[in-house]
Write a structure and sequence with these properties.
Number of strands: 12
Strand order of the largest sheet: 3-4-5-8-9-10-11-12
Structural class: alpha/beta
Largest sheet: 8 strands, parallel
Number of helices: 12
Oligomer: single chain
Distance between the termini: 33 Å
Strand content: 15-25%
Shape: globular
Order of helices and strands: EEEHEHHEEEHEHEHEHEHHEHHH
């Protein structure tokens, strides 16, 4: 697996990371046995960046990764770049995210809770999951910087923020990476001012949901393919009124991928990797077969003409539906 550096002075990571959220929550029933095998296989394939958050399963995903790490030799931990996030708070009764907390006190409390769940003495990349509009970003990042000074955290990141917020944060302490949703289906979040700002400041870009929450793999044919508890049933792009239009776009991507001799997932990931050496996609999966399929994309080199054909398969404005439900959209700091 090739390597890329996140940020001018950030960590060196595999060109593709692994999003671990679905191992514990949101995408159907967890399968711990297969997830452990997937994590082991990721190491064999040279994938070093593992991404989680304290919000995933209300800490369950961090605990799962902690158990996995605890059963491996210390050399496995030393070879990983372990990334997690904080800032989303849950309602005790419903379990749903109901608040964002970027206060200095919560920064420290959340970090030490994550360290405990992960069973580690350091977090390699610590993200603010969502910006708290009630707390100046300088206060939040200042508290995060104290964690770096004490050795609990190595590098800092932000998720789903505006270019202006990113500049303010970077002035307090170097930001190694910004995590944003980016795929053929969601290009507007990164392209333009945000991309220019990241490159001006030397900040790496971690692309989450690079496969459009699985839709761009081509495996989904209808809402019936989603289990009753799958969170995607609540997301607009998977709603009945939008899904048919979006699946037509996926078919166009599939046709281009076939001409390239690869799967749709591989084509989409290769397209992202071709956008710049500062972009690291983190496709999520709990299945070894999908992990191996995704990892093979790192060996594909798309030329400009091939990348343009993939972009043309999903014209600007063609995707139907917002990328999040209204409540989640309201928490974005863009």
């Amino acid at each position: 697996m090739r390597r890329r550096r996140l940020g001018a002075a950030g960590p060196v990571v595999s060109a593709l990371g692994l999003g671990c959220m679905g191992m514990s929550t949101s995408y159907g029933v967890p399968d711990d046995t297969e997830s452990v095998r997937a994590l082991d296989r990721a190491g064999e394939l040279g994938i070093t960046l593992l991404d989680t958050a304290d919000a995933y399963g209300r800490g369950a995903n961090e605990e799962f990764l902690g158990r996995w790490l605890g059963n491996r030799p210390g050399s496995v931990r030393d070879g990983l770049v372990l990334a997690t996030k904080f800032g989303l708070r849950h309602d005790a009764a419903t379990g749903r995210v109901n608040a964002v907390d970027g206060s200095a006190a919560w920064v420290r409390t959340a970090c030490h809770a994550s360290l405990r769940r992960l069973g580690t003495d350091r977090i390699d990349l610590y993200y603010l999951h969502r910006r708290d509009p009630a707390v100046p970003i300088e206060e939040t990042v200042g508290a995060m910087a104290e964690l770096v000074a004490e050795g609990s955290v190595r590098h800092l990141g932000l998720s789903e923020v505006s270019a202006r917020t990113l500049r303010r944060a970077h002035a307090v302490h170097p930001i190694a990476a910004v995590q944003l949703e980016h795929s053929l289906f969601t290009r507007e979040v990164l392209e333009g001012e945000m991309l220019a700002t990241c490159r001006e400041l030397g900040i790496g870009i971690v692309a989450y949901s690079p496969l459009g929450r699985g839709m761009l793999t081509g495996a989904l044919t209808s809402r019936a393919d989603l289990t009753p508890d799958d969170a995607r049933r609540r997301w607009p792009r998977f709603a009945d009124e939008n899904l048919a239009r979006n699946l037509a776009l996926v078919r166009a991507v599939r046709a281009v991928a076939a001409s390239l001799g690869c799967t749709p997932a591989q084509a989409v990931l290769a397209w992202l990797l071709a956008q710049g050496e500062d972009i690291v996609p983190i496709p999520g999966t709990k299945r070894r077969a999908y992990l191996e399929e995704n990892a093979a994309a790192a060996a594909l080199a798309l030329g400009p003409e091939q990348a343009d054909r993939l972009r043309a398969a999903v014209p600007d404005g063609a995707v139907a539906g917002e990328r999040y439900p209204d409540a989640a959209l309201a928490r974005l700091g863009l």
